[in-house]
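User: tokens in, sequence out, please.
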């Protein structure tokens, strides 16, 4: 079925007017009292939270439109028992007249959640904070000033950081999480990862980050470096702790010289692209979920029918198997996800899709819709892999529990009664020690051999780090970052260790996940090897 793409020119021009030619923003929302921190304990500060009737509780039923014109229903439902969480930061959609939006979501924010995030609730618990983002008017001002590179800073970032910290402290409870962002949301999350997660103990809980519609960089020829020090690109569906990122352009309209996406700022970095339809590389079929009524993240586009004849489409979404494929490619201007549309004028199904802006924007309006089914599949597999390594499939950490008056406690041979689990790399042995006496749990991180760095613990929903270095010999107490506990250093010959003492019952009920990573000079050793955490079991010593 043939389709004249030019029929959408007026609507596209309207969107460009809003983004590029709109009125100057009024004085910044960040000025004055409005810049005070948000209260993310207030449910009204969230667009989505699990189990609520909110922006994520929408009808996502879909009609499958085959190439021969036949249609079939595809139901959808959320999974209230999903094993992991998703934390979403939406793109620039606010139509508020100020530079930064207010905290009262309107149709624009609710629409983008429907288009980009609500469907993830089938594989993860949904969390989506409202935040005082740079508005469309504010974006116009930034573009007039030469670019969008500062979208990850300022009031918008502060809000998202505060919301994320509130989520970690009150909702996460040690669960794995996926970060999902698009455009401005991806820029904000990129900074959040760099400041709060990359190279820190919390990284172990990162299932993946979907940073879409924005340029993420690596060192040339590598999967790390650039935007992140220790977090690589995803190259397998069951790989965790990694990044999926792309910007999409048509195969027939590749990024031009003035592209807004897909290129690094200098030769020391390279723009990244991971194809969610083929993470290992090559071409793959996109499982798009497109608005049946032509909605995109900034309003309606399509008016043409999806099928030349037959029953009307009554679901809010359609999927079009076989119509779209994609591959990560590089031209002289950018690295991007090249989307090919396989329309056939001889069949009754529509031959093209909407979502274009101008050549430098590409298919930005439907970046997420184009690969929604693929992204859901990837998160499902990643969640299962993370849960297998951190949940019921984790090896057991047996913690011996001694009474306070046990005669073995404090004797020369007592260390032989404690749990010690080790990993050897090169000239250094890394050891996790654990035991409990009375109501006190002792966790120890010990190295034998060359090492000068930190030990980073994860105990249930808590994460903290302590320095392990011979420079601390003789100082006894050492600082602990991330928890109000005291670290005590000891050492002799080639051994150095740091113990922390915490309340047993509060910190370590049976089944609590426990992990320990030793980090130094960009290197990371995590116990247990290949898994990341143990499941604790306290037994009588």
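Assistant: Sequence out:
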């Amino acid at each position: 079925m043939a389709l004249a793409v030019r029929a959408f020119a007026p609507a596209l021009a309207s969107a460009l007017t809003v983004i590029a030619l709109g009125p100057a923003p009024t004085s910044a929302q960040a000025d004055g009292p409005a810049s005070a921190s948000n209260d993310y304990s207030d449910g009204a500060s969230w667009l989505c939270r699990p189990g609520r009737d909110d922006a994520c509780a929408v009808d996502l039923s879909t009609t499958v439109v085959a190439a021969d014109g036949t249609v079939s229903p595809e139901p959808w439902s959320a999974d209230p028992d999903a094993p992991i969480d998703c934390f979403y930061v939406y793109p620039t959609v606010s139509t508020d007249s100020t530079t930064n939006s207010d905290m009262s979501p309107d149709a624009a924010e609710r629409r983008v959640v429907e288009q980009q995030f609500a469907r993830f609730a089938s594989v993860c618990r949904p969390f989506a904070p409202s935040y005082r983002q740079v508005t469309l008017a504010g974006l116009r001002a930034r573009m007039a000033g030469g670019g969008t590179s500062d979208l990850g800073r300022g009031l918008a970032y502060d809000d998202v950081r505060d919301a994320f910290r509130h989520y970690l402290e009150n909702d996460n409870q040690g669960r794995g999480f996926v970060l999902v962002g698009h455009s401005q949301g991806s820029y904000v999350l990129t900074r959040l990862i760099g400041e709060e997660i990359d190279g820190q103990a919390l990284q172990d809980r990162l299932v993946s980050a979907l940073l879409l519609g924005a340029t993420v960089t690596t060192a040339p020829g590598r999967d790390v470096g650039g935007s992140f020090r220790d977090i690589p690109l995803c190259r397998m569906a069951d790989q965790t702790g990694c990044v999926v990122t792309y910007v999409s352009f048509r195969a027939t309209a590749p990024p031009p010289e003035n592209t807004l996406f897909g290129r690094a700022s200098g030769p020391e970095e390279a723009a990244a692209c991971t194809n969610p339809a083929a993470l290992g590389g090559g071409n793959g079929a996109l499982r798009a979920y497109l608005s049946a009524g032509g909605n995109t993240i900034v309003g309606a586009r399509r008016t043409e029918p999806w099928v030349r004849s037959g029953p009307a489409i009554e679901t809010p979404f359609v999927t079009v198997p076989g119509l779209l494929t994609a591959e990560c490619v590089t031209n002289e201007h950018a690295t991007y996800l090249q989307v090919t549309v396989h329309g056939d004028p001889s069949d009754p199904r529509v031959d093209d899709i909407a979502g274009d802006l101008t050549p430098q924007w590409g298919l930005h309006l439907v970046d997420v819709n184009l690969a929604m089914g693929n992204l859901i599949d990837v998160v499902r597999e990643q969640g299962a892999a993370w849960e297998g390594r951190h949940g019921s499939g984790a090896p057991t950490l047996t913690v011996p529990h001694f009474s306070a008056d046990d005669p073995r406690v404090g004797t020369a041979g007592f260390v032989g009664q404690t749990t010690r689990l080790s990993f050897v790399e090169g000239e250094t042995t890394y050891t996790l020690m654990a035991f409990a006496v009375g109501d006190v749990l002792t966790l120890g991180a010990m190295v034998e051999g060359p090492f000068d760095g930190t030990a980073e613990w994860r105990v249930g929903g808590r994460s903290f780090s302590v320095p392990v270095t011979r420079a601390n010999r003789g100082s006894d107490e050492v600082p602990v970052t991330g928890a109000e506990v005291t670290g005590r250093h000891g050492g002799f010959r080639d051994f150095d260790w740091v113990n922390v003492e915490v309340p047993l019952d509060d910190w370590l009920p049976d089944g609590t996940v426990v992990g320990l990573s030793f980090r130094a000079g960009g290197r990371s050793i995590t116990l247990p090897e290949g898994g990341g955490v143990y499941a604790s079991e306290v037994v009588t010593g």
